[in-house]
Amino acid sequence: MSYGVALHVWxxxxxxxxxxxxxxxxxxxxxxxxxARGILEAIHWKPAIRWVVDRIHVLKPVRFESIRxxxxxxxxxxxxxxxxxxxxxxxxxxxxxxxxxQQRAATVLKDVAYVIEAHFEMVPGRIGPEDSEGxxxxxxxxxxxxxxxxxxxxxxxxxxAADFALVEGDLPSPHPTLLEDPWRDRDLGLxxxxxxxxxxxxxxFFRAHLRNGVVSVPRLDAPEVRG
Amino acid sequence: MTILQSLVGYYERLEGEGAxxxxxxxxxxxxxALVLAASGDVEDVIDLRAQGTKRPEPKVLxxxxxxxxxxxxSNPFFLWDKTSYVLGVVxxxxxxxxxxxxxxxxxxxxxxxxxxxxxxxxxxxxLLAFLRRWDPARYPELxxxxxxxxxxVVFMFRSGGAPGFLHDRPAARRIxxxxxxxxxxxxxxxxxxxxxxxxxxxHPAIKGVPGAQTSGASFVSFNLDAFTSYGKEQGANAPVSExxxxxxxxxxxxxxxxxxxxxxxxRPHYANRVQIGDATTxxxxxxxxxxxxxxxxxxxxxxxxxxxxxxxxxIRTVLQKIEVGRPFADPDELGRTLDPETRFxxxxxxxxxxxxxxxxxxxxxxxxxxxxxxxxxxxLRIEPHAWTLPPALWRLLRETAAQGELDNVSPxxxxxxxxxxxxxxxxxxxxxxxxxxxxxxxGEINDVRAAIVRACLARDYRQGFEQEDVxxxxxPGETNPGYRLGRLFAILxxxxxxxLGDVNAxxxxxxxxxxxxxxxxxxxxxxxxxxxxxxxxxxxxxxxxAHWFDQAIGEAMAGLPAGKPFPATLSMADQGxxxxxYYHQRSARTATGESDDATATLTDEA
Lengths: 227, 606
Hints:
The complex is a heterodimer of chains A (227) and B (606). By secondary structure, chain A is of the alpha+beta class. Chain A has helices at 33-43, 78-87, 133-146, 176-179; strands spanning 4-14, 25-26, 49-58, 64-72, 101-122, 163-166, 186-196, 202-211, 214-216.
């Protein structure tokens, strides 16, 4: 693939929340494809391109830790925002953290590093005369090399910022303890692939397998993808 | 495997044993049965509760499934419910809401009249007759009326011979099966099984987690709108089929309940559950056969609390085998060969009001687990110790908590400690610091505390995070300044006691924390004081003892740098070594033959 990229991402903590355990959060064992897409989009995205994640390499042993955080229980409803816009006043739009605290436990990943292998496709109908594959590829590479991003990419949740570096040439090698770890090959169960935004924001799942430390990601329209 | 997947797997194992209720049914605690006559009169009330214990325990019956009843709307269960629904009576003392006391009963009657409208079974006919004629005002006439209040009640009907439960009658089962089949929710993919089917909107309640609501808490729930995503509502946020939801909830409820285990005295007890800090921990094995034996071993390993002397001997043998790392080569003491490849799951849950959170979820094999436990026990080893069985997790945790109260244990610490034990990774950093803080706060240095401190240091050394090991028993050759100073401190304390007897505030009470943290500030002072103590011992005619102390002090100090024997500060690890050195020296015999008093009292306690 001429416009494929590989991005090394790492961070102190990560939480790729499982949908069934998203209130008292529990992370998936490895990064999900949609989280990987989010990181790529944070670095470079335009309406004319669509990122497709191909493979995720796990570079460090999977370790969990639990933490507790205070969060709020509600969100401000769309209706009251619309009303406020109409009334040209923000009265009644507030959410007082002190009155609406929810302590939530989270079981998160500790000390993670991945390589995301991905490519992008041009989106028919959104391509302008100035768009070309080479241009976007160059933009992504240039931006990733310089550490530029539209917003700080994160590892699943905003609090866990991701560091990143463009991989040119050989992929970084996994942590030595991983090489003999039986964990390198295993069934990760059903994992969220992505949300099908075009069709009622339906979640799409795939059976994730770790083979020699690598998760191969199917395309959203692949036959084995369910949901 | 994910948590839900492995729970569903466990359900399937139980299902194979015929030990769990099928879809549409749940196990409920029922106290009384109303025996109906064909006319609809109540013939008798039978007390189903097990007597003999202090409080009679309700009988666990498989009945048409209960569900959550949020809010004030009345939602009756099928063919059973509490007395407010079945008989229209509420405990006047407990009544708080302005709700119409008969609202629940009316809903129960209406719904059953509708559900049973086409029933021609004589038992169900009797129930219809009962519902039509029952008058709540007649409640006090019933036998057991007082005790029955607010309890769950089922119906029985006699059709020749002994009365049988109404909900067990084939006609009732048919009606319920149709109802369950027709109440299918929206179709969707199940993220547990991967199959398409009706998705559960609300998941069954999980009961039996201490600290959670007694009516049950939710394992999978979205009870506030901040928890939902992409405009989804309730169960659609995490599509799980109704079947899988029933399966995981039933499995979890079974693990949390006492129904699975029978102890040495024939009483039901928790076979698959232990309390680790605030985390109610359940564990289960996945094996072709003898998963139960593996689970029993696990229960001993996590919480060795034997109920008889025979059992204690058995547990000791098993744990000693684990400790020396030779667990499963031979058939175990139960005469069975446990397969080290048996998969093991450990799930720690803690309550958060209406929800349950996962404190930790660990997957391992029996062999691995035994290896890790062996390492843990070896790291904990300290001489002299006062235990016959290695200290259970909760005993370790208690030593880190204020006032020794398990309620004061840091909730995060308990989970992290369990995780460290099972995975063999470093103990949580806060384990060492919290233990040192407790020692500083209350001045007590017992064998469990010393063992915790040693375990933290020994494991860090074994894994390369520490440069120096730490001895198991008194090692006069150990030159680490922390260890030496700990020993010196113990000697100085003994000298004070030999000179003055028991004093109100000895040097340990006054100086232990500063001596272990900032030796240079405290030790010169203590050494001057010791000269006075030795002088006093000499003048009381015990010159030999004074000489012994002199030598002991000299020997302890011999390993310290000559010019500047006392470092200004000690690192956390060296403060830990100080504790271990102090513990070892204090327990050693002195010239008077006096062995340590604290150890002796501890043995009594244990």
